[in-house]
Design a protein that fits this description.
Two copies of one chain form a homodimer. Chain A has eleven helices and 18 strands. The first copy, chain A, is α/β, with parallel strands linked by helices. Chain A has a domain of about 170 residues: Acetylglutamate kinase-like (Carbamate kinase). Chain A starts with a strand and ends with a helix. At the A-B interface, helix 1, helix 2 and helix 3 of A face helix 1, helix 2 and helix 3 of B.
Chain lengths: ~400, ~400
C-alpha cells in the first residue's frame, strides 16, 4: 500500500467528462488499496475569467489580497465538483481548501511561499480512508487571509503535500504523456524518457519545455520527492523525475528550442566603470529578466553589449535604457526579435568534454550560424536564426540521440 | 457616528454597474463617519449555475458538505469584487469569508444554524477604519467544514452580525423600496409603511410578501435588531421593522394574496379515533407543510377533512394519503388548485373586535365567496376563488386603508 499524491491541471477537469475521467483514475488507484490525495486546479478558463471580472471593476492596481480571495474560488469549485464525481463512483471522499489542508504561507499575495503544511486534517481524513481532494494554488497567511502561490501553484501545492506527507510518489498529470528528448510534434525521433534528474528537469522547464513548474521541481529536489509526469488521458507510464546515482548519466537528456527570445544590442557604449552594472540594474528595476549576455569591445574605446529578453519585454527594455541616455552615452540600440534559443541539457555533460564541439559541429553541418553561446554545468544554449529552429533542433537531436 | 450593517442580495451585485452602485451607497455612509459592515450574496444567477454544475456531475444524492463547498464560492466572488469596487472609489476595505468573519454554525449542511459569531476579526477591521465586506450565507462548523445557512441565508448573516456587533441598524437592500400595505403593482392605493413590528413582518413574509426572510426577522426580534427594508436602486427611506410600544398599533398593516395554494379534500372519511392525527402525520413524513385545515361532519357518521398545501406539494400529498387507504377508509380525494389565500395582518386587531366582520363584509360586497377561514392573533386569512384575487384584495384594502 502506498500514499500517492496526484495533481490535475485545469484542462483535466474542464468539463463533466474530464472530471469523471480524473475521478476514475483516482478511484482506480484507491481501490488497489492506496491512499490517494489529489490536488486540483481551477477548471479550464475559470481563473482567466475571474481575472477578467476583476479588471472590469478596477483596471488599475487591484488589491492583491482581494485578487487572491477572488481567484481561489476557482479551485474551490473544481475541488467540490471532483469530490462529487468520486462520490458518484462510490468512494468516500472529502474536499479541503488551502486553509483547511493546512497550507501556511507568507503574506506575499499572488506569489506566496509555503512556510509549512499543518498536515493534521489531511492525516485524519486519510486515516478515515477518505480520498482527499485539495484545492491547489492556495493557502493562508498568519492573519488567516487567503493567499495564492502564483503561476503553476498547484504543482507546488502537490509537491509540498507529497513532501509533508512523505508520499511514495507525486504524480503530475498533464496533457502530454511524459518528458521527451525534444518536442515530439516537431522533432523526428524524439523519445519519451523513463527517468530524468531534478536538475535536468529544471533546465528543461526553464528552457521552455512547459511540462513542470520550476518551483515545484526545486521543491521536489529539496525534499527528495519522486515526481512522475504523465497523461491524464492515456493510461501509460510517464517520466519519473528523481535523483539517482544508479542510473547512468545520459550525456544529453533533451533538446529544446525557445522562440520567445529577442536580442537587444547597445552599440558604441562609452567604456566607463560600472556601466554594465547600471544598465542591468535598470532592467532589474523594471523586473525584466535578462538571459544571455554578450559583451564585445567595439571601436574607439567603446563597447557593445548584447543581451536577450523575452519578446514581450523587449520594448520596455529599450525604453528603460533610453531613460538612462543622460547617464552614459551610446551610439544606438537595436532589437532583433527573429532569433530563437536552442539548448541541450544533460547531467552527463559535466564529465564529458566535447559535448559543445559536437553540438556546434552538428549546427555547422546544417548550415546554422551561431549568434551567441551560453553554458551551465548541465546545459549549452545557442542563439540562432528563428527560421532555422526546426532544422537546427532536428540536426542536434540526431547528432546526440541517433 | 453609527455602526451600520447592510445587506445586498444577488441582483444588487449582478454586474459591474450594480456593484459600483452598491459600492457608492456603502462609501457614502462611510464618508459620513459611520462604520459600515456589508453582507453580500452571490451575483445574480451564480448560485443556480453552480447547482446546475453539481447536478450534471451527480443528479442523485449529492453530499451536502461538498455542495456547501461549491456554493460558497459564489459569495466569495461577489465579496471580492465588491471590495475591489470600494477600493477603486478610494476607501479602505477588506472582504471576509464566513469562516474569517467568525460565523460558527451547527453541522446541518445546507440549512445550518448560527451558534455564535466570533467577532474578533470584524472588530479589528472596523477599528482599523476598514469597510468590512462579509460573504453572506456561509459559516463553518466545529470541524472547520464550510456550511451554508439555506435560502435567504444572507439576510440571516446580516442580522446575526448586527446583533453580535450591537449595530445601530441593519439595512436590508432589495429591489422594492419598503414594505407596502399591499402589492403596489396590483392594488390601487397601496402605501409604503414607515414602520412595522417584527410579528407583523413575520406574518407578511409567511403570507408571500417576499420581502424579508423569516428566519432573519425572527432573529432580529429575538436580539432586538432594528431592521430597515429599502431599495438598492433608489435613495429613499424604506420601512423600519422594530418593536415599539410608542407607535399606535395600526388595525391593519397589510393585505396579501398568495396564489400558491391548493386544497385537498378527503371526503367520507370513516370517523375512527386518531384518523386526523394519522393523516397529518403521514404528510409530515413527506415534509409537506399543511396550512389551513377544515374538518366537517359528513353524512353517515363519516367526516370530510379539507386542508391547503402549496401547489407543488398537492400531488405528493394525495399519493401519501392514498398509500394509507388500507389503514382507514374514505370515499374519495379531490384537489382544487384554483384557489388563493387572502390575508390581512395587523398587531392592532388583537384589541379590536370586528376586524373579521369588516373583512367579510368587504368581500360580501364584492361578491367574493369565502371557502375557508384561518385566524391567528394578528392575522385573518380566507380562501377564495383564484380568479377573484385582485378584486378581493382591492376591496379589502379599500375597506381598511381608505
Amino acid at each position: 500500500m502506498s500514499l500517492i499524491v496526484k495533481k490535475f491541471g485545469g484542462s483535466s477537469v474542464a468539463n463533466k467528462e474530464r472530471i469523471f475521467n480524473v475521478a476514475q483514475i483516482i478511484v482506480d488507484d484507491y481501490r488497489k488499496g492506496n491512499d490517494v490525495i489529489t490536488v486540483v486546479s481551477a477548471q479550464g478558463d475559470t481563473t482567466d475569467d475571474l481575472i477578467e471580472k476583476a479588471k472590469e471593476i478596477n483596471d488599475g492596481n487591484i488589491s492583491k489580497r482581494e485578487m487572491d480571495v477572488l481567484l481561489t474560488a476557482g479551485e474551490q469549485i473544481s475541488a467540490a465538483l471532483l469530490a462529487m464525481a468520486i462520490e458518484k463512483l462510490g468512494c468516500p471522499v472529502i474536499s479541503l481548501l488551502g486553509w483547511q489542508a493546512g497550507f501556511n504561507t507568507d503574506s506575499n499575495h499572488g506569489i506566496a511561499r509555503i512556510k509549512n503544511i499543518n498536515t493534521e486534517r489531511i492525516k485524519t481524513e486519510v486515516s478515515k480512508k477518505n480520498i482527499v481532494i485539495v484545492a491547489g494554488f492556495q493557502g493562508i497567511n498568519k492573519y488567516e487571509d487567503i493567499t495564492t502561490l502564483g503561476r503553476g501553484g498547484s504543482d507546488t501545492s502537490a509537491v509540498a503535500i507529497a513532501a509533508a506527507m512523505h508520499a511514495n510518489r507525486c504524480q503530475i498529470y498533464t496533457d502530454v504523456d511524459g518528458v521527451y528528448t525534444a518536442d515530439p510534434r516537431k522533432v523526428k525521433g524524439a523519445k519519451k524518457m523513463k527517468e530524468i534528474t531534478y536538475d535536468e528537469m529544471l533546465e528543461l522547464a526553464t528552457l521552455g519545455a512547459q511540462v513542470l513548474n520550476n518551483r515545484s521541481v526545486e521543491m521536489a529536489k529539496k525534499y527528495n520527492v519522486e515526481l512522475e509526469v504523465l497523461s491524464s488521458l492515456e493510461r501509460i507510464e510517464g517520466t519519473i523525475v528523481r535523483e539517482t546515482t544508479k542510473m547512468e548519466k545520459m550525456l544529453i537528456r533533451g533538446v529544446t528550442c525557445d522562440k520567445d527570445v529577442a536580442t537587444i544590442s547597445v552599440i558604441g557604449l562609452k567604456d566607463l566603470p560600472g556601466v554594465a552594472f547600471k544598465l542591468f540594474n535598470k532592467l532589474a528595476q523594471y523586473k525584466i529578466n535578462v538571459d544571455m549576455i554578450l559583451q564585445s569591445v567595439g571601436r574607439d574605446g567603446t563597447k557593445d553589449i548584447t543581451f536577450t529578453v523575452s519578446r514581450g519585454n523587449a520594448d520596455t527594455a529599450i525604453e528603460s535604457i533610453e531613460s538612462l541616455k543622460s547617464v552614459f552615452q551610446y551610439s544606438k540600440i537595436t532589437k532583433d526579435a527573429t532569433v530563437s534559443k536552442l539548448s541541450i541539457v544533460g547531467a552527463g555533460m559535466e564529465s564529458h568534454p566535447g559535448v559543445a564541439a559536437k553540438m556546434f559541429e552538428a549546427l555547422y553541418d546544417a548550415d546554422v550560424n551561431i549568434k551567441m553561446i551560453d553554458t551551465s554545468e548541465i546545459k549549452i544554449s545557442v542563439l540562432i536564426d528563428e527560421n532555422l529552429s526546426e532544422k537546427a533542433t532536428q540536426a542536434v537531436h540526431d547528432a546526440f540521440m541517433a
